Amino acid sequence: MTPTAEFKTALLAQVAQLRFFALSLTNMPDRADDLVQETLIKAWAASNRFQEGTSIRAWLFTIMRNTFYSDYRKARREVQDTDGEEAAKLMSYPEQGGCLDLQDLKIALAQLSEDHREAILLVGASGVSYEEAAAICDCAVGTIKSRVNRARQKLMELMGIDAPEEIGGEFLAAGDPLRVAMAQTG
Question: What residues form the membrane-spanning segments (predicted)?
Answer without folding.
Answer: none
